[in-house]
Amino acid sequence: MKTLLKVLVALVAVAALGLLFVRSVRSTSAEPFSIPRAHLTGWTLELAPPNDPLGALLTLTPNTALMPPLSREMFARMGESLHYPPAAMPVVLRGEFDRALAGTITPDALLDLARQAGLEAPTVQVKCMARRRESAPGVVRGIYFLVFDVPQFGQFREQVAKRIGEGGANSLFDPEALSPVVVAANLDVDTARWMPVRATESDCFAPIVIE
């Protein structure tokens, strides 16, 4: 009985330590991420290559200084094996273009339209750091992504929908299907499978502080 009691006490102690560890990890991961204000400037529009890892045709690429500090902070906080795709905000996905826009507008014309909409020098505000996960037997998939508030982003996608509306293709292009997000990291190398991301408040797990 004494031996059994000692075993039970040890198990309870281990469980308590495990619970404290999990709570500590969750608390740490939910702490605010910080971004220098200067790192939110200098966005550029680009046509993505055919093998783009996000499955994008048109992207808004952030300042090169934006993601490296966040990547280091995430590595230190999350305690997970993470992959870091090239930093880019998909504006139009290649699947969207092939399905609804091909034959109506060329990629170059789409790029020009995005520049005219002010996406080359956008007004950018960061909402939060967000994540999504999928669990299956023997594997956990997930992404971490920054959610932005970019008025020009939604306005441009609405313009695209109106431009192709007369041909009836607008039913294949949902301007609200894609939110202005930048994938910060993922748990597997297949980032495109998560697109399009329509971000919600429930995706957010940590706030952003602008320095």
List the domain count as a whole number.
2
DSSP strand (E) fraction? 25-35%
Shape: globular
How much helix is in the residues?
25-40%
Strand order of the largest sheet: 1-8-5-6-7
The chain-level structural class is alpha+beta
Continuous helix count: 5
The parts where pLDDT drops under 50 for at least 5 residues are: 9-27
How would a crystallographer describe the biggest sheet? Answer: 5 strands, mixed
- What is the succession of H and E elements? HEEEHEHHEEHEE
Radius of gyration: 21 Å
Number of strands: 8
Overall pLDDT: 85
- Give the termini separation: 60 Å
Observed structural traits:
211 residues; alpha+beta; 2 domains; five-stranded mixed β-sheet; three-stranded antiparallel β-sheet; 8 strands
